[in-house]
């Protein structure tokens, strides 16, 4: 079984920033990345550190970014999400967002980027949708 990246950022992780943590939970062929805290220029490296190894995982068909715990997201954070979408697609995987709210929801709506992402109300709904899509492939 492939090794997973650390479940949470720790003070010993490269790019560690206390304002953002990412925990990974696998549901079959779907990995859920629960993002908690602020996504901005100083914390984007923490998100990338956790996501980049996932694109190389042959056992995954989809990644859900759960934004339920996200308290802030600026344009740099949105840019990182767009980059994650592109990397995920290049790797032949499906990226879904869940529990989008607050500044991220407003930013995606105002810019029209909401249409670029598949967004679900909860991580559980996103996992179900991703699992159905993987079963159809």
UniProtKB/TrEMBL annotation:
Domain STAS per the UniProt entry, residue ranges: 20-130
Molecular function GO labels: anti-sigma factor antagonist activity
Q: Where is the signal peptide?
A: none
Task: Read off the InterPro entries from this record.
Answer: Anti-sigma_ant, STAS_dom, STAS_dom_sf
Q: Name one Pfam family in it.
A: STAS
For this protein, the record's CDD domains field holds: STAS_anti-anti-sigma_factors
Q: Say which domain of life the source belongs to.
A: Bacteria
Q: Which residues cross the membrane?
A: none
Q: Which PANTHER family match?
A: ANTI-SIGMA FACTOR ANTAGONIST TM_1081-RELATED, ANTI-SIGMA FACTOR ANTAGONIST TM_1081-RELATED-RELATED
Family according to the record = Belongs to the anti-sigma-factor antagonist family.
Name of protein: Anti-sigma factor antagonist
| Naturally occurring in which organism (per UniProt) | Planomonospora venezuelensis
């Amino acid at each position: 079984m492939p090794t997973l990246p650390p479940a949470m950022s720790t003070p010993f992780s490269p790019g560690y920033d206390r304002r953002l943590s990412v925990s990974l939970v696998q549901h079959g062929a779907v990995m859920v990345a629960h993002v908690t805290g602020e996504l901005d220029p100083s914390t984007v490296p923490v998100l990338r550190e956790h996501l980049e190894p996932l694109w190389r995982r042959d056992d995954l068909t989809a990644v859900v970014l759960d934004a339920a715990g996200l308290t802030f997201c600026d344009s740099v954070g949105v840019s990182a999400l767009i980059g994650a979408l592109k990397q995920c697609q290049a790797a032949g995987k499906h990226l879904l967002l869940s529990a989008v709210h607050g500044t991220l929801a407003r930013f995606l709506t105002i810019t029209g980027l909401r249409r670029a992402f598949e967004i679900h109300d909860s991580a559980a709904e996103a996992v179900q949708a991703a699992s159905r899509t993987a079963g159809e492939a």
